[in-house]
């Protein structure tokens, strides 16, 4: 009879390992002595110690070879939040996550760490120091959030300590850092088009922005503390920089650091939100004729004009989490990493 090889605890897989967070996670795992199998729809780099498997996570047969002899899986793949494709979000985040769970169980994986999002509790209204026991958003602000909620539920409900399949979810917020394809590039693009002159609302709303290395640190702590007897099993954890900052101060620091002017003129929140909603509806109606993507979507306006910051006390208590890079250093390192996005470059 063939004996089953017990997967080595230092061998792991990162689904979505070609993406922004995924690649930072892979690099840190290698530094910590793990060997890593990356599964992604695209391959964006090569590194010694990493085996790449290219495919769609909705295809279990494509996924299984990436999980062979692996004891720990990080699932951080998702379509980009800016997409408006409901079918794609449902297919990848919900059906795909079911497939990831089935494949993990079939392959004998012991631990699954999901990258969820703090946005699963955000409905477009203020959240101040929100804890993990806030209810899931009843009216999620977009398809991305709607499907991240279902994805998190699936992963946490799959936790089964008796069968030795342990799961947990990390909920980061506003990840930024070198190689981020959305926050800084979208901000700079908006500034270059002369649209970053306005502050939405009074500009005092506090928000969490989390440096990517802190998010990676939270994931690895969760994986390494995830054991049958730990409180982590089946529970979500906020991971932030633990330094809420005014949304518009953060944007201004990045913009000024890259040589652009900080926004100065105030516009009422309800006016901008109403306009964004109108534009979004227009874009939807006109889609069969021609397509345009408004910069100020209702989701972005809600994120820019409300408080949304979260307590990471649970992660501090159960994971021993503490941010390793301050917001100030994170912003400086991020600004430095984008020479091509500087004013005049
Ligand atoms: N960035 C942020 O501020 C936050 C992100 N998160 C979560 O963190 C995770 C990582 O985000 P981030 O690194 O920013 O995103 P990225 O888009 O940079 O990375 C996601 C990766 O997953 C890949 N992918 C998408 N669909 C599939 C699929 N069907 N099969 C295999 N791979 C696929 C993407 O490929 P491709 O690029 O070709 O689509 C990409 O390489 C996501 O789960 C996101 O929801 C949570 C909170 C905040
Ligand atoms: C045009 C400006 C008003 C805003 C430019 C910056 C935005 C692109 C970003 C500000 C907050 C960011 C954010 C996310 C994406 C990029 C921003 C909207 C997420 C939606 C990414 C995925 C998540 O899970 C939650 C994030 C919240 C913050």
Short description, anyone?
With 345 residues, the protein is α/β, with parallel strands linked by helices.
What does this structure look like?
It is found in: Endoplasmic reticulum membrane; Lipid droplet. GO terms for molecular function: 3-beta-hydroxysteroid dehydrogenase [NAD(P)+]/C4-decarboxylase activity. InterPro entries: 3Beta_OHSteriod_DH/Estase, Lipid_A_modif_metabolic_enz, NAD(P)-bd_dom_sf. Belongs to the 3-beta-HSD family. Helix content is 38%, strand content 18%. With 345 residues, the protein is an alpha/beta fold. Bound molecules: NADPH dihydro-nicotinamide-adenine-dinucleotide phosphate (NDP) and the ligand CC(C)CCC[C@@H](C)[C@H]1CC[C@H]2C3=C(CC[C@]12C)[C@@]1(C)CCC(=O)C[C@@H]1CC3. Residues 81, 117, 119, 173-174, 182-183, 186-187, 190, 295, 300, 303-304 line the site of the ligand CC(C)CCC[C@@H](C)[C@H]1CC[C@H]2C3=C(CC[C@]12C)[C@@]1(C)CCC(=O)C[C@@H]1CC3.
Question: What is the averaged pLDDT score?
Answer: 95
Helix content: 25-40%
Q: Sketch the topology as an H/E string, one letter per element.
A: EHEEHEHEEHEEHEEEHEEHEHHEHH
Please count the beta strands (DSSP E, at least 2 residues each). Answer: 15
Distance between the termini: 65 Å
Q: In terms of per-residue confidence, which ranges show pLDDT below 50 for 5 or more consecutive residues?
A: 1-6
Overall 3D geometry? globular
Number of helical stretches of at least 4 residues: 11
Helical/strand content category: alpha/beta
Beta strand %? 15-25%
> Radius of gyration, Cα only, in angstroms?
20 Å
Strand order of the largest sheet: 3-2-1-4-5-7-12
The molecules bound to the chains, other than polymers, are: NADPH dihydro-nicotinamide-adenine-dinucleotide phosphate, the ligand CC(C)CCC[C@@H](C)[C@H]1CC[C@H]2C3=C(CC[C@]12C)[C@@]1(C)CCC(=O)C[C@@H]1CC3
Largest sheet: 7 strands, parallel
Subunit structure: Homodimer.
EC number: 1.1.1.170
GO molecular function: 3-beta-hydroxysteroid dehydrogenase [NAD(P)+]/C4-decarboxylase activity
InterPro entries: 3Beta_OHSteriod_DH/Estase (IPR002225), Lipid_A_modif_metabolic_enz (IPR050177), NAD(P)-bd_dom_sf (IPR036291)
